[in-house]
């Protein structure tokens, strides 16, 4: 398949360590009636200074043609008083800045998603069943959950699909 027939979604789980996951699907699984087959899946983690994580994200995003990006939104579930507590907010903001300024390449659109939505759509048992359960730390798992959740939401919501994949026309 050429890139014209594929859509790329990059999920981001920002934090002190940021997880990322890239899923490629057939375009017709969103804008047609093709099944939701996953063509490719890659994942990893970003460590180090927050700005460095954002720069590394830019290099990852630029590898792909017209990716859509979904970033885990911050959920203030517990008030803590340490610097690490707000790392997800700071990293996510830097990544969003990179997307909005074009530093991350030609991202077609981006969306924020709450953790609860991703966990409801793609709990561990479903990720395992789908063969999308990376070994090791939770960060790539959570990024994968976000990518899959956005894909499933876009399949059901043509308005969302057009917004995040606007380069590819109508739904």
Structure overview:
There is one protein chain. The longest helix has 19 residues, at about 140-155. It is globular, with a radius of gyration of 15 Å. Strands 3-2-1-4-5 form a five-stranded mixed β-sheet. A hairpin with a 4-residue loop joins strand 1 (about 5-15) and strand 2. The protein is α/β, with parallel strands linked by helices and about 170 residues long. It has one domain (about 5-170): Nucleotidyltransferase, domain 5 (2-Layer Sandwich). Helix content is about 40%, strand content about 20%.
Set out the fold topology:
Layout: E1 6-13, E2 18-26, H1 28-31, E3 40-46, H2 50-62, E4 68-72, H3 87-101, E5 109-113, H4 115-121, H5 124-129, H6 138-156, H7 158-164
Parallel strand pairs: 1-4, 4-5
Antiparallel strand pairs: 1-2, 2-3
Helix pairs in contact: 2-3, 4-6, 6-7
């Amino acid at each position: 398949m050429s890139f014209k027939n594929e859509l790329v979604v990059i999920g981001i789980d920002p934090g002190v360590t940021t997880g990322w996951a890239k899923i490629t699907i057939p375009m017709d699984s969103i804008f047609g009636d093709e099944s939701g087959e996953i063509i490719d899946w890659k994942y990893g983690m970003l460590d180090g200074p927050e700005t460095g994580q954002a720069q590394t994200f830019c290099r990852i995003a630029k590898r792909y043609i017209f990716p859509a990006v979904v970033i885990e939104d911050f959920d203030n579930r517990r008030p803590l008083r340490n610097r690490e507590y707000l790392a997800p907010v700071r990293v996510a903001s830097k990544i969003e800045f990179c997307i909005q300024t074009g530093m991350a390449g030609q991202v077609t659109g981006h969306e924020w998603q709450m953790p609860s939505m991703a966990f409801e759509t793609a709990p561990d048992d479903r990720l395992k069943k789908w063969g999308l359960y990376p070994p090791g730390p939770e960060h790539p798992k959570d990024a994968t959950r976000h990518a899959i959740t956005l894909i499933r939401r876009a399949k059901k919501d043509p308005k969302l699909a057009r917004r995040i994949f606007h380069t590819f026309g109508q739904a």
